[in-house]
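Data deposition worksheet. Section B asks for the primary sequence of the deposited chain exactly as it was used as input, without tags or linkers unless they were present during the calculation. Section C holds the resulting structure in token form. Section D is free text for depositor observations; keep each observation to a single sentence. Incomplete worksheets are returned to the depositor.
Section A, Depositor: J.P.
Section B:
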Amino acid sequence: MKIRLKDRKRQKILRISAFLICLSVIIFGLLTFLSHLPYFQVNKIEVRGNTTIDAGALVASTREALSGKHFFLFPKSNIFLYSKVSVKNYILEKHPKVKELAIHTTDLRSFSVVVSERQPKAIWCQGEPDFSEAPLETPCFFTDKDGFVYAPSPELAGTVYLRFYGLIDHEVPISQRYDTKEGFVAVLSFLEEVKNITNLTPIAFWEKEDGERQVFLENGTKVIFSLEQEFSTVLESLSIAFANIQTGGKIPELEYIDLRFENKVFYK
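Section C:
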């Protein structure tokens, strides 16, 4: 009698388990089916905020990010299942000129991509500074205010924007940074102070592999110092040097001013 009771309980448990498994399979299959319905697929992608980036290219990249399936079953293009983070990261990787973007779902079949483009602050150029070229023949690339390299620049940009040299791998400069964000901002601030002291506009900054730094002024003078020196120390030395060099309120034409040596300034 006890054996039969146990058998009945076991059979009941097996029937319930089989029912739950079948129900799970049916629900899972139904969800898979529903996820493929055209009504729930992203059909329309609107791009806003772009000024120089082609909207068609952004739409194409977005569709590439939505291709494929989750777990080989659920389409990534499903309006309920697509990953905003994945789409955002894919677009940022494919389009370095995009600084920020946001994705907003508008209805069951569409969403909008709102982008903010990087603005040029300076250019980074390959090789070494050469001011005999007009226009520039060496490849140069736009950088934003944070030192991020994002797009090739036209030849004439070298006469408009501040140039930077060194630090970046020449083979693949796009999507690299000139120094850290904080370091680049500090250099820009330093160059502005150089302009205030000398009344001359810096046109190029070069950090060499050996740690030597050079600032090229608009009159052809080159200011030399080292990576180990604090900007504040360099500015103080430069201010004293220019005060002593001036004659009658005018600055003579110099080839260079060398500030690398403590308590000494060499110029020619």
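Section D:
The two ends are 113 Å apart (CA to CA).
DSSP finds five helices and 14 strands in the chain.
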